[in-house]
Amino acid sequence: MLKNFWYACEFSAAITTNPKQVRILNQKLVFYRNAKGQLIALQDRCPHRGAALSLGWVKDDCIHCPYHAWKFQADGKCINIPANQPGIPIPKNARVDSYPIQEKYGFIWLFYGDLPEEERPPIPPLPEFEDPSLQKIFFEYELNAHYTRTLENDMDMSHVSIIHSKSFGNGFALEQKMEDYELNVGEWEGHAKVNVRDYTKAKDLFAFVFRPLKANVKVTLGFYMPNITRLVVDFGRGKLVNFTVHVPVDDRTTITKRIQFRSFLTFPWADGIFQRAAYKVVMEDKGVVESEYPMAVPDKLSDEVHVPCDNLSLAYRKLRQKCLAMGWGMKPYQNQVDDSNGNLMPPSPEKTEWFVSAIVGDRS
């Protein structure tokens, strides 16, 4: 997993003034809104006895622990301990980590890392979100796989005629050859353009997109670091766009959250049809993706065999290597705090300072 990026981790509509637990990057966070609708993201672990703050409640724009009602403000600092007698000071380390957060494109984005604001890689563009002519739907699904594997699967064209032979891949010969494609790689992204030809038939909804013997579909596949894929299918009479976030819950779990845009059949009654079609495709991928070993893509390119049609995923792996070389890989920390579920959570710089003070004393 990588730090120093903005991670889209939840749909905006899912967060209200009621606390909600969000799992990401081997951690558990709590999200909620204050009375003005502003977002707050905190570590979901009370420093007193480890209870989940997401089981608590929000009052006066602060979150209260469900166990002993400790009151934490938006910056994570505890400002009230009901059991304390008047005059007893609140311990300095009675606080939880807080995280930078913003809303964009119907997602909540969380920055996890230590870069100053002006040096952080930007949130990628999504111009379709503001296009009123496109119908959009939001949906998600969970796979028992590492996010790097689900991401690569999402931008792999050569498996379509094999795994998806019962859905949109139906009509390709199993020995379908991949044409050379145009590849463009930027600082934190990569995109490839592929033409799909010689399509003969399709089933269900996909028959509307791929006409027998006439298909000349323009497909653009791409990724944004560290965990986003983008698919654009242009078949002349319409366009379909998938903007997909592969949320890294832990080393064995990925929650994939997707916004799908379409310029055809834009009636709301058709939304369910497109959701079911997308889910069918995911279920065709599920068994294979969950079987991949090792679970994450290897750090070394030479650990797996590559062919020319893998150039887009190779571009992703090279940018991932670049991040690892910059020290952006998330590694085990010293003085870890266990979240009681086998996940190790790094202490914040403030907590590290408190640990030192506790050991050697406050010399100020």
How many separate helices? 6
The shape is: globular
The separation of the N and C termini measures 38 Å
Based on secondary structure, the structural category is alpha+beta
- Share of helix among residues? 10-25%
Task: Tell me what portion of residues adopts beta-strand conformation.
Answer: 25-35%
Compact summary:
By secondary structure, this protein is of the alpha+beta class. The protein has helices spanning 147-154, 160-163, 206-209, 271-291, 311-325, 349-360, and strands at residues 5-11, 20-24, 27-33, 39-43, 57-59, 62-64, 71-72, 78-80, 101-104, 107-112, 135-143, 182-185, 189-197, 216-224, 228-234, 239-250, 253-262, 337-338, 344-345. The strands form five sheets. It has a seven-stranded antiparallel beta sheet. The chain has a four-stranded antiparallel beta sheet with strand order 5-6-7-8, with no helix packed on it. A three-stranded antiparallel beta sheet has the order 1-10-9, with no helix packed on it.
